[in-house]
Design a protein that fits this description.
Elements (H helix, E strand, L loop, with lengths): L17 H9 L1 H9 L10 H18 L5 H21 L8 H4 L3 H16 L9 E9 L6 E9 L4 E6 L5 E5 L5 E5 L1 H18 L5 E5 L5 E3 L4 H24 L8 H4 L9 H6 L9 E10 L5 E7 L2 E8 L4 H5 L5 E9 L5 E11 L1
Helix pairs in contact: 1-2, 1-7, 3-4, 3-6, 7-8
């Protein structure tokens, strides 16, 4: 059966997390769609992203002390990979299994992850009254902002908040002189500053250091001020309020750009995005009415769509899609996660391609 969205029943977002804030600020409609879909993605992400979830879980268990040696690590790693692969198969994403063959640098990432065992054991000695809080939940007093902090280290006169990232923490930007410099991503800076304010609301004091740690154990410090943390906190609450007001007023807007939409897992339900790709062919998704469907001797199927007066060709679709597509002639459909070919208006299907009507 072809995928369908059905009626979208919007509901208010009760709380946002620091990790969600930056994305919501760039396109609040994405968060409304996620809430309406009960946070069940409409599209698969990459194998690397699913493996990243496994890596982060292992980092959490290492920081908690649940994994103490190499034997613990190997056993838990296999268990977590197996659990993720079972979940992928259950969702119909068996093309990502086994992860070891689908994830780039799988073994290298595992080795880097295992090295965090030594990183934890080699922490500088701290006073006996130093406390470590791993994956502890912090929320604002009004319960509108909340999330788990990977690791909080509390000493007598200093407190450090650490967040582990399994992907790239920095990006190249231009400074005031036009020189390329490497800088911590803006979303991570804001996430940590929100965590800092949540920590303040719960303890009455701000942390003294905010840090990010990557798989290679590189540590990046984020500068902050109490005023900055307070301002971002108020901005987050205001954003939540204005987003929920859209539901009451039934006035929705979106910001369809490559940055906002490329990795959005709810774009099949976004009318703003679907309208946008009718005239903007720079994305790896297409929308149009079915003009023709052809099955070749090798079993592959090609689909021909009309969109904005242009004829779009989508090749390499599996043979089992032929009958359904052929019965959809003159119907409008949307095809996601395609590979763009060198020829204009030519695309080919890949493992993660999905079709919605």
């Amino acid at each position: 059966m072809m995928n369908k969205i059905g009626a979208i029943n919007f509901k208010k977002i009760k709380r946002i997390s620091p990790s969600q804030f930056y994305s919501m600020k760039n396109c609040a409609y994405k968060s409304l769609l996620a809430e309406a879909m009960n946070k069940k993605p409409l599209l698969p992400v990459s194998a690397n992203a699913y493996f990243g979830t496994v890596l982060h879980k292992i980092l959490e268990l290492i920081s908690k002390g649940a994994i103490r040696n190499e034997e613990d690590f190997n056993t838990t790693f296999q268990e977590q990979v197996k659990l993720m692969e079972e979940k992928l198969v259950a969702h119909g994403y068996d093309f990502f299994v086994p992860l070891q063959k689908k994830v780039k640098d799988f073994i290298m990432k595992k080795i880097l992850l295992k090295d965090h065992l030594r990183f934890v054991s080699e922490r500088p000695p701290r006073a006996s009254n130093t406390k470590f809080h791993s994956e502890k939940w912090y929320e604002s007093k009004d319960k509108l902002i909340g999330g788990k902090i990977d690791l909080v280290i509390e000493a007598e006169n200093e407190t450090e908040i650490l967040d582990f990232k399994t992907g790239s923490i920095t990006q190249d930007v231009l400074d005031d002189n036009g020189e390329i410099i490497s800088e911590v991503k803006a979303e991570y800076k804001e996430q940590l500053k929100l965590y800092a304010y949540l920590y303040f609301e719960n303890t009455g004091k701000f942390p003294t250091q905010l840090s990010l740690v990557d798989l290679s154990k590189q540590k990046f410090t984020v500068d902050f001020s109490e005023q900055e943390c307070n301002s971002i906190f108020e901005e987050a609450k205001s954003l939540l309020n204005s987003t929920n007001n859209c539901i009451e007023k039934e006035i929705f807007t979106a910001n369809p750009t490559e940055a906002n939409c490329k990795y959005c897992l709810y774009r099949p339900a976004c009318s703003f995005y679907l309208k946008h790709i009718e005239t903007d062919y720079s994305f790896n998704d297409v929308s149009g009415s079915v003009q023709n469907v052809v099955k070749f001797q090798n079993g592959n199927v090609s689909l021909y769509l009309e969109s904005g007066g242009k004829l779009i060709t989508v090749s390499n679709l599996p043979s089992e899609k032929f009958d359904e597509l052929n019965n959809s002639r003159n119907k409008k459909i949307n095809v996601f996660n395609l590979k763009r070919e060198p020829r204009e208006f030519f695309y080919s299907a890949i493992k993660t391609t999905m079709i919605y009507e």
